[in-house]
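Morning!

This is the sequence you dropped in the shared folder:
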Amino acid sequence: MNGTRPLTAFTSSLQAIRNLLDLARDVAVRNDHRRLAFLFVSSIGAVGCSAGPRVLEERLPLAVALANGYGEAKWSLRVWPDVGGTVLWTPVDHCGGVVADLALNPAAEGPVYHMDNPVGQPWRDMNPVLARLLGVPAGAILPFRDWIKRVRTSPLVPETENPTARNGMADFLEKNFERMSCGGLVLDTQRAREHSVTMAAEGPVSEVVVGRYVKAWKRMGFLN
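The structure's back. Tokens below.
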């Protein structure tokens, strides 16, 4: 997800999706008795303007999608926002398991399924863990609004040292992050849990797992 690139930059990705859809259509036409599933996975931004607080697993109009795209967000400045509420994270390999469950389960005929952690855990417990893993001093965990202000007023170069300050990302976070990422907008997962054993077994994300993700992001250069 990158809101800094024009739509034309995603031409190859969109064409790949179209090719897969055409393949699924052709196979379905030739095999009347074979069940086919095409699952397209989006983000919570697809329902970011929903009235909430709980979004049901059903088709919704385009108007509920966020009007702006996601920008590239890397926490910077060696400070961390002290956000509250509930963090609902699902490891990507678990998401893959959910997709496989739904694709292979004959009973999974719903048009929309939500992949979201049905349990969650407090952000207040996760904040110090992430700060420590990212080398942020304990005294540099700031209230969210103060953190946004620090991002906007920092002398660091947005293009390289403070990417959160560029392309309206700070405005996006100030307006949407607490509502969409702290439990203010929750994706209902009742149907997904009924049809996916992986989703039904999902629970809080451990500190060990979080540490592995941060280590991997540092190794690939996403985090410094």
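Headline: Strands lie at 54-55, 80-82, 86-87, 121-122, 141-143, 186-187.

More detail when I'm at my desk.
O.
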